[in-house]
Specification:
By secondary structure, the protein is an alpha/beta fold. The chain has two domains: 197 residues, Rossmann fold, CATH 3.40.50; 229 residues, Rossmann fold. The chain is built from 19 helices and 14 strands. It has a six-stranded parallel beta sheet with strand order 3-2-1-4-5-6, with helices on both faces. It has a six-stranded parallel beta sheet with strand order 11-10-9-12-13-14. Strands 7-8 form a two-stranded parallel ribbon. α1 crosses α3, α5 packs parallel to α6 and α10 runs parallel beside α13. The protein is elongated, with a radius of gyration of 24 Å. It starts with a strand and ends with a helix. 47% of the residues are buried. The structure holds uridine-5'-diphosphate-glucuronic acid. Uridine-5'-diphosphate-glucuronic acid binds next to α10 and α12.
C-alpha cells in the first residue's frame, strides 16, 4: 500500500514510521520545512524512545520519506491519513479543527483515482462527515471514502502501542474502504489483534470515550488517595484491592498530582463540549475536568505544609517537569501549576528534568534549570518529585540527605516507600499513603 501521512507531528510521525515498518510505502508530509529538513537528516523533532532507529531503518530500506509537497504525496497514495493537531480552542475548550479542514481541502485538490482518506487526528463525532463534505465539493463520490481510525498511542511507549495494540478501531461502512484498511492493518490481523469495524461516528466517539474513561479512573483513585490521607488508609492497597476485580482492572489506578499531557485534558474538555451541545451533558466528564484542574495547584499545598506553612525565600528542588516520564512533552503538565503556586508563595525553584528542560524553559520563568538530579538539591529546604523518571527511583538517598538543608521529600508519584524513607531519616510525604509516624499519631 502507498500511504501519505499529512502532519508529521507526534501522531503522524509515529504512525507513518510504524506503517513503513509494516512494509508499506509511506511519505510523511508537513508544512514546516525546517521539520522536514531535520527528519531528512535523521534528527527527530520529538523525543520518543526507539523512534530514531525505526525511522533510520525504514528510510534506508526506501519505504519511508518526508516532503513538504502534499499534492505529490497524495496523488499516488492509496490511503491518505490526516494526522494534524487538534488543539483545544481557547475559550470554549472545543477541538480546533482548522488544520483538519485545511488538510481536507488540500487533499481534495490533489486526489487522483480512488483514495481512502483516514482521520487519525482525534476529532469530535461528526468530523468525518464534514471532511467528506469538504472533499465532495471537489471530487466525485467514486474518487474517495472518508474513514475514522483513531490512535491509542501513549507517549513514551508509542511504538510498542502501535506495533502491538490491544485493538484497532476503524470507522467505515463502505466495503471498498474496509478492504484498503484491512490491507493496511494485515500485519496486525496476522498477530490476532482485534480489528473493530464500526460506523464512523462510533469510531470517533470510541476515542474520546476511551480517554475520558481512563481520565475518570485516574481522577477516582486520586480522590480515594485524598480520603486515604484523612482516614489513615493506604491507597496502593485500595487500588490493588479493587483492581484485582477483573471488572475494574488494575491499570490506571496510580494516584498522583493529576493527569496532564496533550490528550486527556484536551479530549475531556472536547467531549464535554460535544455532550453539552447535543443536549446530553456528561456530568461525570465535567466533574473529572474540574477535579483535575483543582488538584494540580493543590499539590503545592503539600509542600507548603511540609515546610511549616511559610515558604517565602525557601529553596525548593523539583525533580521532573514533563507530564509523565519518557517524553519531553510539557503540555498541561502538573509541574506548571505546582511551580506557579510555589513561586507565588515566594519559593525559589531549582529544577531538573532529563528531557523536558528545553520546552520547560519556554513555559516557566525564574526557575534555575540544572543538569542533573543532585545539583538542585544543594542547600534546598525540600525536594519534590513531580515526574517518575526511572533515574529518580534509585537516588543515592545518603547523598540526597547530605545535600539538602533538611531531609524533606514530597513524592507526588509514590516512587518511594513511606517506612523506608522514615527509617532513612526523611520527613516524607507522598500521595494517599501514611508514614509510620503519621499512623502512630493516629
Ligand atoms: C493517552 C492514552 O493513554 C493513550 O491511549 C491515547 O492514545 C493518548 O492519550 C492520546 O489520546 O493520544 P498519554 O497522554 O501519552 O496517552 O499518556 P498516559 O500514559 O495515558 O498518561 C496521561 C496522564 O495520566 C499522565 O499525566 C500520567 O501521569 C497520568 N496517569 C496515568 C496517572 O496519574 N495515573 C495513572 O495510573 C496513569
Amino acid at each position: 500500500m502507498r500511504i501519505a501521512m499529512i502532519g508529521s507531528g507526534y501522531v503522524g510521525l509515529v504512525s507513518g514510521t510504524c506503517f513503513s515498518e509494516f512494509g508499506h510505502d509511506v511519505i510523511c508530509v508537513d508544512k514546516d520545512d525546517s521539520k522536514i529538513a531535520l527528519l531528512e537528516d535523521g534528527v527527530m523533532p520529538i523525543y520518543e524512545p526507539g523512534l530514531d532507529n525505526l525511522v533510520a531503518k525504514n528510510v534506508k530500506a526506501g519505504r519511508l520519506s518526508f516532503t513538504t509537497n502534499l499534492k505529490e504525496a497524495v496523488k499516488t497514495a492509496d490511503a491518505v491519513f490526516i494526522g494534524v493537531g487538534t488543539p483545544s480552542r481557547r475559550g470554549d475548550g472545543k477541538a480546533d479543527l482548522t488544520y483538519v479542514y485545511a488538510a481536507a481541502e488540500e487533499i481534495a485538490e490533489a486526489i487522483d483515482g480512488y483514495t481512502v482518506v483516514v482521520t487519525k487526528s482525534t476529532v469530535p463525532v461528526g468530523t468525518g462527515q464534514q471532511v467528506s463534505d469538504i472533499i465532495g465539493k471537489i471530487c466525485t463520490s467514486d474518487d474517495f471514502d472518508v474513514v475514522s481510525n483513531p490512535e491509542f498511542l501513549r507517549e513514551g511507549a508509542a511504538i510498542e502501542d502501535f506495533m502491538r495494540p490491544d485493538r484497532v478501531v476503524v470507522g467505515t461502512e463502505c466495503p471498498r474502504a474496509q478492504k484498503v484498511m484491512e490491507a493496511i492493518y494485515r500485519p496486525l490481523s496476522l498477530i490476532q489483534t482485534p480489528i473493530l469495524f464500526t460506523s464512523r461516528e462510533s469510531s470517533e466517539l470510541i476515542k474520546y470515550a476511551g480517554n475520558a474513561f481512563l481520565a475518570t479512573k485516574i481522577t477516582f483513585i486520586n480522590e480515594m488517595a485524598d480520603l486515604c490521607e484523612k482516614v489513615g488508609a493506604d491507597v496502593h492497597d485500595v487500588a490493588r484491592g479493587i483492581g484485582l476485580d477483573g471488572r475494574i482492572g488494575r491499570k490506571f489506578l496510580h494516584p498522583g498530582p493529576g493527569f496532564g499531557g496533550s490528550c486527556f485534558p484536551k479530549d475531556t474538555r472536547a467531549l464535554y463540549q460535544t455532550s453539552a451541545e447535543h443536549d446530553a451533558p456528561s456530568r461525570i466528564v465535567e466533574a473529572v475536568i474540574d477535579i483535575n484542574e483543582a488538584r494540580k495547584p493543590k499539590m503545592a499545598d503539600k509542600v507548603i505544609q511540609m515546610l511549616g506553612g511559610d515558604i517565602k525565600g525557601r529553596k525548593i528542588a523539583i525533580l521532573g517537569l514533563t507530564f509523565k516520564p519518557n517524553t519531553d512533552d510539557m503540555r498541561e503538565s502538573p509541574s506548571l501549576d505546582i511551580i506557579a503556586k510555589l513561586q507565588e508563595s515566594g519559593a525559589d525553584i531549582h529544577a531538573y528534568d532529563p528531557e523536558g528542560a528545553k520546552e520547560a524553559k519556554e513555559l516557566l520563568s525564574d526557575v534555575t534549570f540544572c543538569e542533573n538530579a543532585y545539583t538542585p538539591l544543594e542547600n534546598a529546604d525540600a525536594v519534590v518529585i513531580i515526574t517518575e523518571w526511572n533515574e529518580f527511583r534509585a537516588l543515592d538517598l545518603d547523598r540526597v540527605k547530605s545535600l539538602l538543608n533538611q531531609p524533606v521529600m514530597v513524592d507526588l508519584r509514590n516512587i518511594y516507600e513511606p517506612e523506608e524513607m522514615e527509617a532513612q531519616g526523611f520527613q516524607y510525604m507522598c500521595v494517599g499513603r501514611p508514614t509510620p509516624s503519621q499512623i502512630s499519631k493516629g
